[in-house]
Amino acid sequence: MRALILILPALVLTGCERAPMVIFADSSITLPDDPLDLPPGAGVDAVIANCTACHSPSTMLQQPRLSREQWLATVTKMREVYKAPINEPDIPLIVDYLAAVQQGTEGQAER
Amino acid sequence: MSKARFTRRALLAGAGAGGLGAAFAAPLLGEKLIDLGLPGGPSLRPLGPAFPGKGEMIVQRIRPPLLETPLKALGESVITPTERFFVRWNWDFPTAINVANYRVAVGGAVRQPVELTLDEIVSAGEHVEVVAVNQCAGNGRGLSTPRVTGTQWGNGAMGCARWTGVRLKDVLAKAGIAPGAKRVRFAGLDVPPMEGAPQFIKSVPIDIALRDDVLVAWGMNGEPLPMMHGFPLRIVVPGWFSTYWVKMLATIEVLSGEDDGYYVAKSYRMPAQPITPDEKDFPTVSITAMPPRALITSHADGETVRRGAPLTLRGIALGGDAALARVDLVGEGFELPCTLVGPDEGPYALRLWEVTIPEGTQSLANIGVRAANVRGAVQPDTLFWNPSGYARNVIERITLRLA
Hints:
The complex is a heterodimer.
Chain A: E1 6-7, E2 27-28, H1 44-51, H2 58-61, H3 68-80, H4 91-101
Chain B: E1 6-8, H1 20-25, E2 32-35, E3 44-46, E4 58-61, E5 66-68, H2 71-74, E6 87-88, E7 96-97, E8 104-108, E9 114-116, H3 118-122, E10 127-135, E11 158-167, H4 168-175, E12 183-188, E13 201-205, H5 206-209, E14 215-220, E15 223-224, E16 234-236, E17 249-255, H6 262-266, E18 269-271, E19 284-286, E20 293-296, E21 304-305, E22 311-318, E23 324-331, E24 334-337, E25 339-341, E26 351-357, E27 364-373, E28 397-402
Parallel strand pairs in B: 8-17, 21-28
Antiparallel strand pairs in B: 1-2, 2-3, 4-5, 5-6, 8-9, 10-11, 11-14, 12-13, 12-17, 14-15, 14-16, 18-19, 20-22, 22-26, 23-24, 23-27, 25-26, 27-28
């Protein structure tokens, strides 16, 4: 087994005190667009309006199949834990939409 | 490990709803999809769009980015190239950093709170390098049965890099730890958009924080950390799951009590004892150190291999929070020791292994690899199921068909 860590020479002895050897340069990144693509269906507008401020739609679409109760619990978690500003009357629309979109899938989750 | 069938989206017109989520998350025509073999689906994921500085990645989510490394790529080397390294953010993060204005605040239970520039961090102590696996606590969650909610990763939410930085304890010494310190907490620049939402802040016990190999790191594989990996500084805790490796480090806070923050007290926890899926209200513990794991990366589930021809399987393994001791191939009625090959970059690094299947082996059904570490931890045969799918390390099995 090799030594746990390699110790590199700490500081180069240059005239000036504590000369850092590491140069940082300003950095930026352009992330790809996040198309708000959701399958069409009743309630899709409610999901786009309430559920895409913090994350892409894939967050919802990639979940295993959930019951309406489990979707409702997820929406409640988004509101209570993550402070999602969800329009109350939209909640049944959101739950119905997400449950319906998964109808064709065989996936299943149990809690 | 999982079925790595590549499919053109054009072929998927009308493909079952298993592809629904992936197809809608991948609007570009002609985009490639990968099948992660998640039981019950949805299992297809797009291999785009391209992210800056990244090669082909499994795009679990565009915003905030969740990018998974295809298993074949993980098996190619001990050091995962940065452009193939997985990416995971809980909340949006800044897309531009001005280094002159960058400060790391060190406060809490300290003698003298300080705000350190990048130059002050870099000159806080010896520069240290460690090769270590960085693995998401939820790696492999999508393979749980029964399935659980959360990011539906296959097994590619991990990688191994060479990290360079200074010891956290040398940075802490700049402020001086006050007597009675219990934990050290880290916060990054990824703050939630909504008032009152929990910030992604994480803490480790003081004895972990003072370890000689726990770093405030700026280097990844010899280059500055890319933005998506936490430029300019991130915490490195070799042997522990990546949830503690806070990126875009902005605050280091010494705690004299327990951490009651959401991401330590409420989340990233698992049952203290094995439970059944219908159990509720069980005691939980934080997920911390990694258990050993091994994966076959040379062959995917369901592949056909030629009967009678020599067959060598290859893959990766990690010991977790202790060095890897051995890897064994386990099949139905046989076990074979695997040979560790390639460089040994220390106890926290990935290792490559290979094993040649003896001629005349009748069945390659349900073969898997089992890693053990020097502390005696061995991968179990059954899944330690937990409702958040954390710390998966059940032996992963595939079936190869002989033809």
